[in-house]
C-alpha cells in the first residue's frame, strides 16, 4: 500500500492476468506515453487503441495525462497490440500526433479505498507491512 512506480509495456507484449491481494486499495493509472494505432476501424473517426487494460469483463484504454481508477482485486491484464504505425498523443512541438518510441508508460499509484477508516488502515498496515 502506498506504492508508486512507472509501468512500461513494449509492443507485442501482455501483462498476464492477475489480481491484487485485497479490495482495501484503489489502483490509479496515469497515462504518460500511450501509443495509438491510427484511424479507428469502420471510418468512425478517432483512434484505435494499441494498448488495452481489461478489468474483470470491461476493457478500457489509457489516455495521456488522464487517470484511470480501478479495484485491482478484480482479475485484470494489459495488452499492447503490436503495430508499426503506433503514435503517441501530445509529443512533439505541434500539440498533435508525432512518431515517438513505442513503449507505453503509465504511472501506477496505490491509494487507500476511500471508505476505510483510520483503524482499518492501521490494521492493514500490520497485515501488509512496507518493505
TrEMBL record:
<dbReference type="GO" id="GO:0016020">
    <property type="term" value="C:membrane"/>
</dbReference>
<dbReference type="GO" id="GO:0051213">
    <property type="term" value="F:dioxygenase activity"/>
</dbReference>
<dbReference type="InterPro" id="IPR051821">
    <property type="entry name" value="Asp/Asn_beta-hydroxylase"/>
</dbReference>
<keyword id="KW-0223">Dioxygenase</keyword>
<dbReference type="InterPro" id="IPR007803">
    <property type="entry name" value="Asp/Arg/Pro-Hydrxlase"/>
</dbReference>
<keyword id="KW-0560">Oxidoreductase</keyword>
<dbReference type="Pfam" id="PF05118">
    <property type="entry name" value="Asp_Arg_Hydrox"/>
</dbReference>
<protein>
    <submittedName>
        <fullName>Predicted protein</fullName>
    </submittedName>
</protein>
<dbReference type="InterPro" id="IPR027443">
    <property type="entry name" value="IPNS-like_sf"/>
</dbReference>
<feature type="domain" description="Aspartyl/asparaginy/proline hydroxylase">
    <location>
        <begin position="2"/>
        <end position="81"/>
    </location>
</feature>
<comment type="similarity">
    <text>Belongs to the aspartyl/asparaginyl beta-hydroxylase family.</text>
</comment>
